[in-house]
Write a structure and sequence with these properties.
- With about 150 residues, the chain is mostly beta strands.
- It contains one helix and eight strands, in the order ββββββαββ.
- It has one helix at about 110-115; strands at about 5-10, 15-25, 40-45, 55-60, 85-90, 95-105, 120-130, 140-154.
- Strands 1-2-3-4-7-8-6-5 form an eight-stranded mixed barrel.
- β1 (about 5-10) and β2 form a beta hairpin.
- The radius of gyration is 14 Å and the shape is globular.
- Its EC number is 3.4.22.70.
- One of its GO terms (molecular function) is hydrolase activity.
- This is Sortase A.
- It is an enzyme of class 3 (hydrolase).
- It holds the Pfam family Sortase.
Length: about 150
Protein backbone atom coordinates (compact mmCIF):
# COMPACT_ATOMS: atom_id res chain seq x y z
CA UNK A 1 0.00 0.00 0.00
CA UNK A 2 1.14 3.57 -0.59
CA UNK A 3 2.22 5.80 2.28
CA UNK A 4 -0.74 7.17 4.26
CA UNK A 5 -0.80 8.06 7.95
CA UNK A 6 -3.07 6.07 10.29
CA UNK A 7 -6.23 7.79 11.53
CA UNK A 8 -8.19 5.10 13.39
CA UNK A 9 -7.41 1.73 14.96
CA UNK A 10 -9.98 -1.02 15.46
CA UNK A 11 -9.38 -4.31 17.25
CA UNK A 12 -12.81 -5.94 17.56
CA UNK A 13 -11.60 -8.91 19.63
CA UNK A 14 -10.62 -6.67 22.56
CA UNK A 15 -13.07 -3.81 22.04
CA UNK A 16 -10.63 -1.18 20.74
CA UNK A 17 -11.93 1.61 18.50
CA UNK A 18 -9.72 4.67 18.83
CA UNK A 19 -8.20 7.55 16.97
CA UNK A 20 -4.47 7.54 16.32
CA UNK A 21 -2.08 10.41 17.01
CA UNK A 22 1.42 10.83 15.60
CA UNK A 23 4.35 10.38 17.99
CA UNK A 24 7.95 11.44 17.47
CA UNK A 25 11.05 10.93 19.56
CA UNK A 26 11.71 12.30 23.03
CA UNK A 27 14.94 14.18 23.83
CA UNK A 28 16.52 10.93 25.08
CA UNK A 29 15.90 9.20 21.74
CA UNK A 30 13.03 7.00 22.91
CA UNK A 31 9.64 7.02 21.25
CA UNK A 32 7.19 9.39 22.92
CA UNK A 33 3.99 7.88 24.31
CA UNK A 34 0.44 9.20 24.14
CA UNK A 35 -0.57 11.58 26.95
CA UNK A 36 -1.74 10.12 30.26
CA UNK A 37 -5.30 11.41 30.30
CA UNK A 38 -8.85 10.11 30.01
CA UNK A 39 -9.63 8.55 26.62
CA UNK A 40 -6.02 8.84 25.46
CA UNK A 41 -5.76 7.44 21.91
CA UNK A 42 -3.21 5.06 20.48
CA UNK A 43 -0.13 6.66 18.97
CA UNK A 44 1.79 5.86 15.79
CA UNK A 45 5.55 6.30 15.83
CA UNK A 46 5.98 8.56 12.79
CA UNK A 47 9.53 7.33 12.27
CA UNK A 48 8.13 3.93 11.29
CA UNK A 49 6.39 3.02 8.01
CA UNK A 50 2.70 3.81 7.76
CA UNK A 51 0.41 0.78 8.25
CA UNK A 52 0.31 -1.16 4.98
CA UNK A 53 3.74 -0.05 3.75
CA UNK A 54 6.60 -2.55 3.76
CA UNK A 55 8.22 -2.65 7.18
CA UNK A 56 7.05 -2.58 10.79
CA UNK A 57 4.53 0.15 11.58
CA UNK A 58 4.64 0.77 15.33
CA UNK A 59 1.62 1.81 17.42
CA UNK A 60 1.73 2.38 21.17
CA UNK A 61 -1.00 2.73 23.75
CA UNK A 62 -1.43 2.73 27.50
CA UNK A 63 -2.60 -0.23 29.56
CA UNK A 64 -3.76 2.22 32.25
CA UNK A 65 -3.86 6.01 32.39
CA UNK A 66 -3.21 6.83 36.02
CA UNK A 67 -6.24 8.09 37.91
CA UNK A 68 -8.32 7.84 34.72
CA UNK A 69 -8.46 4.03 34.75
CA UNK A 70 -8.04 1.64 31.85
CA UNK A 71 -6.00 2.60 28.82
CA UNK A 72 -6.82 1.87 25.19
CA UNK A 73 -4.55 -1.22 25.18
CA UNK A 74 -5.79 -2.57 28.54
CA UNK A 75 -6.51 -6.00 27.06
CA UNK A 76 -3.74 -6.21 24.45
CA UNK A 77 -2.32 -9.28 26.24
CA UNK A 78 -5.55 -11.15 25.41
CA UNK A 79 -4.85 -11.09 21.68
CA UNK A 80 -4.11 -14.39 19.97
CA UNK A 81 -2.69 -15.50 16.60
CA UNK A 82 -5.22 -14.92 13.83
CA UNK A 83 -7.01 -12.00 15.55
CA UNK A 84 -7.67 -9.11 13.19
CA UNK A 85 -6.56 -5.49 13.49
CA UNK A 86 -7.85 -2.78 11.11
CA UNK A 87 -6.15 0.56 10.59
CA UNK A 88 -8.03 3.26 8.70
CA UNK A 89 -5.62 5.57 6.90
CA UNK A 90 -5.73 9.23 5.87
CA UNK A 91 -6.35 8.31 2.21
CA UNK A 92 -9.57 6.49 3.23
CA UNK A 93 -8.14 3.00 2.80
CA UNK A 94 -8.03 0.34 5.49
CA UNK A 95 -5.04 -1.90 6.17
CA UNK A 96 -6.11 -5.19 7.79
CA UNK A 97 -3.61 -7.24 9.75
CA UNK A 98 -3.69 -10.70 11.33
CA UNK A 99 -1.82 -11.33 14.57
CA UNK A 100 1.19 -13.62 14.19
CA UNK A 101 2.17 -13.75 17.86
CA UNK A 102 2.01 -11.96 21.20
CA UNK A 103 5.04 -11.54 23.43
CA UNK A 104 5.47 -10.29 27.00
CA UNK A 105 9.03 -9.26 27.76
CA UNK A 106 10.82 -7.42 30.56
CA UNK A 107 11.40 -3.78 29.65
CA UNK A 108 15.08 -4.33 30.41
CA UNK A 109 15.14 -6.92 27.58
CA UNK A 110 13.03 -5.03 25.04
CA UNK A 111 13.64 -6.59 21.58
CA UNK A 112 14.41 -3.35 19.75
CA UNK A 113 15.62 -4.96 16.52
CA UNK A 114 12.69 -7.36 16.38
CA UNK A 115 10.18 -4.54 16.87
CA UNK A 116 11.74 -1.76 14.80
CA UNK A 117 14.06 -3.66 12.44
CA UNK A 118 13.35 -4.03 8.73
CA UNK A 119 11.08 -6.81 7.49
CA UNK A 120 10.25 -7.74 3.90
CA UNK A 121 6.48 -7.32 4.22
CA UNK A 122 3.93 -4.87 5.65
CA UNK A 123 3.86 -5.50 9.40
CA UNK A 124 2.31 -3.99 12.50
CA UNK A 125 3.63 -3.81 16.05
CA UNK A 126 1.30 -2.90 18.93
CA UNK A 127 3.02 -2.11 22.22
CA UNK A 128 1.84 -1.44 25.77
CA UNK A 129 3.03 -2.01 29.33
CA UNK A 130 2.46 -5.33 31.05
CA UNK A 131 3.14 -7.48 34.04
CA UNK A 132 2.10 -6.79 37.61
CA UNK A 133 1.82 -3.09 38.33
CA UNK A 134 4.54 -1.83 40.66
CA UNK A 135 3.00 -0.14 43.69
CA UNK A 136 3.40 3.57 44.50
CA UNK A 137 3.29 4.71 40.88
CA UNK A 138 6.21 2.57 39.75
CA UNK A 139 4.59 1.60 36.47
CA UNK A 140 4.91 -1.84 34.94
CA UNK A 141 8.01 -4.04 34.59
CA UNK A 142 7.18 -5.55 31.18
CA UNK A 143 5.98 -4.73 27.69
CA UNK A 144 3.31 -6.60 25.77
CA UNK A 145 4.10 -6.67 22.05
CA UNK A 146 1.73 -7.85 19.32
CA UNK A 147 3.32 -8.79 15.99
CA UNK A 148 0.97 -8.81 12.99
CA UNK A 149 1.18 -9.05 9.19
CA UNK A 150 -0.92 -7.42 6.48
CA UNK A 151 -3.68 -9.68 5.12
CA UNK A 152 -5.71 -7.14 3.17
CA UNK A 153 -6.00 -3.57 2.02
CA UNK A 154 -8.92 -1.63 0.59
Amino acid sequence: MAKSAPQRLRIPGIGVDTGVMALGLAADGTVRVPPIKAHSPAGWYDGSPTPGETGPSVLLGHVTVGAYGDGVFRHLDRMRPGDRVAVTRADGSTATFAVDRVQTVAKSRFPTEEVYGNVDHPALRLITCGGTRISDGGGYPDNVIVYASLVGGS
